[in-house]
Amino acid sequence: IAVGPIADRFFVRNYKLFSLILYALATASFGFFTLSVKTAYMEPLIPSNIWTLATSITLAGFFQGAISPLLYELSAELIYPVSEATAGAILTGFFNTATLVLLFVAPTIEQTWMNTVQTAVVIFCALLVLFARAKYHRSDAEEKIHEQGGVVVSHRHSDKSALVTDGSYVS
Asked: Which of 2, 110, 129, 145 is the most exposed place for a label (fewest CB within 10 A)?
């Protein structure tokens, strides 16, 4: 809820940058947590207590949760004029597949490695976004419609934009 207004005000047509900022903050939070607890390969490097650990994991969860809506918006922009529902379904499929893989792999990972694996997964996801080419096809189409004096509407069974002038639809 808090991230949407920030994205709309300061990161218009720049969801990729905002996602990368949130990934960096999530990585820093997970990294702080990982370095504050004993792992398979080292003792804690950062002194901590229950409050610093709770704060770092809460912030990590907040930042990671804030990324998802931005990724849905970015994916809708990237595959326009394909339906936003299709973009959402594809992204949800990726999320569910990754979760399924994690559920099967998690029992084989030692408990002391889990925080390191989580931090590595967040970094990997950030790299995927970093190398994605951000093109704002949907926003471009909507701006073109506005320039032509129309308003953007959605067809009943399609998310494609249409120009409405004098009550008529023009694709």
From this structure: 2
What's the pTM?
0.74
Q: How far apart are CA 79 and CA 84, in angstroms?
A: 8
Asked if residues 75 and 87 have their Cβ atoms less than 8 Å apart, the reply is yes
Residues 25-84: pLDDT tens digits?
Answer: 999 999 898 888 877 777 877 787 889 889 999 999 999 888 888 888 888 888 888 888
Dihedral angle at the C-alpha atoms of 13, 17, 18, 24, nearest 10 degrees?
Answer: 170
Bridge partners, residue 152, by sequence: 163
Pairwise CA distance, residues 154 & 83, whole Å? 10
DSSP string, 86-154: HHHHHHHHHHHHHHHHHHHHGGGS-GGGHHHHHHHHHHHHHHHHHTS----HHHHHHHHHHHTT-EEEE
CA distance 34 to 113: 9
Q: How many CB atoms lie within 10 A of CB 100?
A: 10
